[in-house]
Design brief:
With 249 residues, the chain is of the alpha/beta class. The chain contains 10 helices and 8 strands.
């Protein structure tokens, strides 16, 4: 097994592939809902196994295209949607978020929970804008600093893993520069990170770390996951996800 295989196997083993919860998804959708048609056309970009896709499908009569580059994630979503009788509202599409196949001005809503960082905050907002109908919405969660006085240790960590992290105020300014209006935003609570995302990972790490201890590359990957969790446990008051709901004029 190589590191890429272990990486995907690891995230296939947990329910969510990024911080979030049903309450946050529902809250963001309710902010967007007044600006949407009765049956919106939605793209869930970087959907993973689709925990939030299922939550969206339960709230709308629209059609959701769930997009991810990793087919096993999409297979899991299809199985779950079938179990819940939601296949009429969800279809899956294997695609790179940097080369999406949607037609210009074809979508009412683009959803991106914890995934826009893959293509880049500014890059995603600029590139995805063309797929939105006039008045269309992007709802996404992105890492932000909650405090200006974060300790150097956690700032240095983020400079290593994601130097594009900004304050909420700077993120709002960038959204405006990219030609959007903000219709709502809120900070996601710690349970999105701990209960839904990190605690399930810890259970896997406890089992897997001894199994791969003799392989420097594989054990190194698991140590990276463990370090991320420990950083949040110690410094989670200083950063987290802000959910932004923004509109193309």
């Amino acid at each position: 097994m190589n590191t890429q295989e272990l990486f995907f196997r690891y995230f296939e083993s947990i329910h969510r592939q990024g911080p979030g919860n049903t309450a946050s998804t529902n809250r963001a959708f309710q902010i967007a809902k007044p600006f949407l048609p009765d049956k919106p056309l939605i793209a869930d970009i970087g959907c993973g196994k689709g925990a939030q896709t299922i939550d969206l499908a339960r709230q709308t009569n629209g059609q959701i295209t769930a997009v991810d580059i990793h087919q096993p994630f999409l297979d899991s979503l299809e199985q779950r949607a079938a179990e819940l009788n939601l296949t009429n509202h969800i279809r899956t599409l294997q695609a790179d978020m940097n080369a999406l196949p949607f037609s210009p001005e074809s979508l009412d809503l683009i959803w991106a929970e914890g995934s826009i960082f893959i293509t880049g905050f500014e890059n995603g907002l600029k590139n995805w804008r063309r797929f939105l109908k006039p008045g269309g919405i992007i709802a996404f969660s992105e890492s932000v600093w909650f405090s200006d006085d974060a300790p150097d240790k956690i700032r240095n960590y983020w400079n290593e893993v994601y130097p594009d992290i900004q304050t909420i105020e700077a993120s709002l300014e960038l959204i405006g520069e990219c030609g959007y209006e903000v219709i709502g935003h809120f900070s996601q609570p710690k349970e999105c990170w701990l209960d839904e995302y990190y605690y399930p990972q810890e259970a896997i790490l406890d089992r897997w770390e001894p199994l791969y201890a003799e392989d420097p590359e594989l054990s190194g990957l698991l140590k990276m996951f463990r370090r991320e969790i420990e950083q949040y446990k110690q410094y989670g008051d200083y950063y987290g996800y802000e959910f932004f709901i923004i509109r193309k004029p």
